[in-house]
Amino acid sequence: MSLTEKNYFCLEQVLKQFGVLSKKNHFGGYCLLIDNVIIGLVLDDNFYLRGCLFARSYFEAIGLKRLVFTKKGIPLELRYYLVFEQIWENESLLFHCVDLAYRSAREELLQKQSAVVRIKDLPNMNMSVERALGKIGIYKADELQEIGAKACFLKLKQHGRLMTSIKLLIGLAGAIEGYHSAVLPIKLKQELINWYNTVG
């Protein structure tokens, strides 16, 4: 069903009950976000609710159709579900569907944020660095961040793990800060070089 002016006004009123509403361009249309969490998509004058986790099961159970987006000639089924006419005509059902989409999207975001990040997946890191750090008792990315690049470097040097070079020190600092070595801020890089030269 086309997203008429009346339906959009109704949708806006429902969405505002959940939090701050914003828009972001997406797939040639735009996403609707509540408190920076994507809950739906407006595309070709249609509104699709985002269906992740428990919302997905419910949307499929009530017969909402998934969005099929064609990319380079290949049809892709996305986790967005078309809101049909009966839902627009029933404000309490619309509210219930938006509530499910919002709670599911928030839950998914929290799950992603609490997922354990492996050291090898950080910038500048790889399996050999992850293994060497594991042998000195540093197993997770948050442990690396807590201990810091200099202390990790000294522990690796003390235990003879890896070639303890300036490249490794800068790589560890970049991993902690979320930068590739090549784009680590110059001030931080210079400070690490000076420190390395004193402990070299």
From TrEMBL:
TfoX C-terminal domain: from which residue to which, for each copy? 118-195
Alphabetized Pfam families for the sequence: TfoX_C, TfoX_N
**What's the superkingdom here?**
Bacteria
- Could you tell me which Gene3D superfamilies the record lists for this protein? 5' to 3' exonuclease, C-terminal subdomain, YgaC/TfoX-N like chaperone
Q: Which GO terms describe its biological process?
A: establishment of competence for transformation
Q: Where is the signal peptide?
A: none
Q: Which InterPro entries match?
A: TfoX-like, TfoX-like_gammaprotbact, TfoX_C, TfoX_N
Give start and end of each TfoX N-terminal domain: 14-104
**Which PANTHER family does the entry link to?**
PROTEIN SXY (PTHR36121)
Q: What is this protein called?
A: DNA transformation protein tfoX
